[in-house]
């Protein structure tokens, strides 16, 4: 939610157009909450959520590691002061030359999910550590992931055996239970599958060391979500259940859970209209939409909290849409959003919990609208 520091920034600076403001104090509090809740687990911040240099520098200072999806993100993290041993190249889809560049920069930990990717890593990053991502169904997540990343657990055994044959170091197993995951037993199921892979490979002389628990840790939007401590306690109990006293190294990759609640977008009402004289639903057009950074409203998966200067007045259902000349630029129509009847053209609204996946999803200038401005305080 908007902090007093954010509100003071808007009052003092009065930035033109839609903009995101990120409060580093919230990022710091979130990191410390993860570290306290899971003290035996290393945090690998998912850089894709928000790669602002100020955010990266703070997390470097706090001791975070980093999950990177590209060479570009790796360079950002190195520029922020991290050493290469704190970086995981966590994308399972990598160009061979990018694997080589990452290895030259000192990165030694790579994600894979098929033998073909293992072969690329073996050629361009010889001797590196690899972990294999397995599929999860994502049940319970507000933003379930597709089958784009990961393989069936049985195939993961073959993938990691191939890594051993090619003189890589089979290091572990990873999974992602889906973004905005509030169903904690999802980790139980995935950890059971990971433990089975550990046992099978141990019988074949390959001893894995690490389980990457992925992301999925939620941000509070319109509904309350469990605190980091609840996730930590549940996940630790699942690990003990499946691994007994031979506990693996564990890492987590929070992105949304680290920065989502740290950001607020200021937007302006451009137009309010109806589609017919007797239409009970108003259309409220903002100066930001899917192409300006709110891509996660696709399928209305993420419903952001919105505050207005007229909160407390009577409300009525609205369709929310962005300003572009694209019919897909509609935010909430399937389930209309209740906003004050008194809301007027020119009013400024705050779209809260926008610190993750907004600037990175903003186009560079679709329809001539500038990219989403970002300020870090």
Automatic annotation (TrEMBL):
Q: Which pathway or pathways does this protein act in?
A: Amine and polyamine biosynthesis; putrescine biosynthesis via L-ornithine pathway; putrescine from L-ornithine: step 1/1
Keyword vocabulary terms for this entry: Lyase, Pyridoxal phosphate
Cofactors: pyridoxal 5'-phosphate
**What EC number(s) is this enzyme filed under?**
4.1.1.17
Entry-linked Gene3D superfamilies: Alanine racemase, Lyase, Ornithine Decarboxylase, Chain A, domain 1
Q: Which residues form a coiled coil?
A: none
PROSITE patterns in the cross-refs? ODR_DC_2_1 (PS00878)
The EC category is lyase
Which residue ranges does the record assign to the Orn/DAP/Arg decarboxylase 2 N-terminal domain?
26-259
User: Which reactions fall under this protein's catalytic activity?
Assistant: L-ornithine + H(+) = putrescine + CO2
Member of which family? Answer: Belongs to the Orn/Lys/Arg decarboxylase class-II family.
Q: What is this protein called?
A: ornithine decarboxylase
In the record, what lineage is assigned to the organism producing the protein?
A: Bacteria, Pseudomonadati, Pseudomonadota, Alphaproteobacteria, Rhodospirillales
